[in-house]
Amino acid sequence: MVALAACQSNESNTAAKATHAKAAAASAELTRKANMAAAAKVKANELGNIPVIMYHRVTDKPGGTDDRTPAQFRAELERLASENYVPITAAEYVSGKIDIPAGTHPVVLTFDDSSPSQLTLDAMGTPQPNTAVGILLDVSKKHPGFRPVATFFVIRDMFGKFTPEERAQVLGWLRDNGFDIGNHTRDHLNLLGKSEKEVTEQIAAGQKLISDLDKKVQVHTLALPYGNQPRDKQWALHGSANGVRYDYQGVFLAGYTPAPSPFTKEFNPVGIPRIRSMDKKGDCVKFCSTAWLDELNAHPDERYTSDGNPTTVAFPKFKTPFVAKNVTTNALPY
Ligand SMILES: [Zn+2]
């Protein structure tokens, strides 16, 4: 009797399990269908291109072809906000953590060379209004969906600060306020044609510069000075020198196109293109920010559009051959 009861209960357990599994599968299928419908509704394309914009100084007296005035910088951010772009950091981009509302497009705002025009804080820790960060915070206040995040690729000229205390204050402020810090090497040397030792020493020194000032800062990315790749491109991604090891998830160049989605086969962490912020003039008629934002507007089918669900990678079924191999369980072709 005991044996029979046990057997019966096992049987009913198995049956219950099967029913449960069936119900779970049906519910997963329903969720999947709902996700597909939601993605199709906003024409989600998470295999599309993402503009990674490169800024240098934001100053009233532009010194070269890399600088923008505060008015120009503000106008570009206003344009991005009005065209449904939402900033994400370089770290979020390379790791595919793109959590923005349905129908919006990611943009990565990057700042090179850690100049005081990007961030200067007063004695109470408030950003000066005409610095890049001051302007970004102001635009974000006017457009609440426009996340005030950006990535700062820093070098030894640490926002014009010289004492370790003041330098730590600026890095700590960036970290506390959700900004991302990347390495741009310590001395901003051209790494083209340099030996492995010279390349890894420069990058490790940049990493040490940051972690010595603020141990809590996690560095996930590097921007190459002048966008020049070392002889072996992998040296920029992984290496160690003088007891400092670095392992990055992405290395950024200096030009000239929007970057591929991190979910496509085209994504290559050793050389991620960026776009210089500039109007359509001279060599910027086609390859800088105004021209590329016009181009992405003219070809929305090539631009990254989010489905609003960070757990799926949604795209029109037609684009399936371009999905990266590591996107498997969460792919949502529709
Ligand atoms: Zn630079």
Chemical compounds bound to the protein: zinc ion
Number of helices: 8
Mean pLDDT comes to 95
Radius of gyration: 23 Å
**Would you list the SSEs in sequence order as H and E?**
HEHEHEHEHEHEEEEEHHEE
Measured by DSSP, the beta-strand proportion falls in: 5-15%
Q: Can you give the helix content as a percent range?
A: 25-40%
**Annotation, overall tally of beta strands:** 12
Structural class determined from secondary elements: alpha/beta
Cα separation of the termini: 55 Å
**Based on CA inertia axes, which overall geometry fits?**
globular
Largest sheet, strands/sense/barrel: 6 strands, parallel
Q: Which segments are poorly predicted (pLDDT under 50) over 5 or more consecutive residues?
A: none
Quick summary of this structure?
By secondary structure, the chain is of the alpha/beta class. It has helices at residues 2-41, 70-82, 90-95, 132-142, 164-176, 196-213, 284-287, 289-298; strands at 52-55, 85-88, 105-112, 151-154, 180-183, 221-223, 238-241, 244-247, 250-252, 275-276, 313-315, 331-333. The protein is globular and about 75 Å long.
